[in-house]
Design goal:
Length: about 90
């Protein structure tokens, strides 16, 4: 993968204007998509197979895997149940 040598100042300015909360939200979305992708690879499943398993169209799974989907807790619960793997983990307060 090639490294980025030049970033246009307008892009830098636009990114710096994004709130920390949005940056964190986007980071979580990308992390969740990466985790799902990792599980699919580990299990030898394609996106099409996963779509059939979860009862969704492949195009929707493709949008999920782009990293910009806002996953709900319900969706994550369904994904975890269908794949038999943990996608996210919450630290218990005790």
């Amino acid at each position: 993968m090639a490294s980025i040598k030049y970033i246009h100042p307008d892009f830098k300015e636009a990114v710096s204007a994004v709130s920390p909360e949005i940056k964190k939200e986007v980071g979580y979305s990308f992390d969740i998509a990466a985790r799902i992708r990792s599980i699919l690879v580990k299990k030898g499943l394609s996106q099409a197979e996963f779509a059939r398993m979860i009862g969704k169209k492949e195009a929707e799974i493709s949008r999920w895997m782009s990293g910009t989907h806002n996953f709900t807790i319900r969706t994550i619960s369904v994904i975890e149940t269908v794949l038999g793997e943990t996608v996210i983990s919450v630290k218990k307060p005790y």
